[in-house]
Amino acid sequence: MNAIRHIGIVVSDLKPSICFYKDLFGFQITRQVEESGDYIDNILALCGVKVTTVKMTAPDGQKIELLQFHSHQRIQKTRDINDIGIAHIAFEVEDLNAEYNRLKDEGVSFNSPPQLSPDGYAKVTFCRAPEGTFIELVEVL
User: What is the pTM assigned to this prediction?
Assistant: First the structure.
């Protein structure tokens, strides 16, 4: 493997998710595509796929891909932090208390206020993106 290319996140509505990652965390849209046809059907092992994909790049160059399926829509299920599979994405921040207060003022839901790790290495908290993805915010001390 050369590198992790991106993390894909299926959303029910692109607009609030784009706003969340762009406006609150500084991601920039680098590509938005409407996809359908044999290529996407084959790589996803589905028939008749119609999906909008939005690639976004974080200030440090890491990427996420938001996918809104116009075909093959699923009912959003509330995920628990201990569900099998990818559990969260972690973002490192400079001042967790300030970020916590800023995001809380924007209506972002948190599991708890920032907590000091038992070894004193970091302050940590978890919030949720609009599509339900857990976001871990970490300030290394």
Answer: 0.89
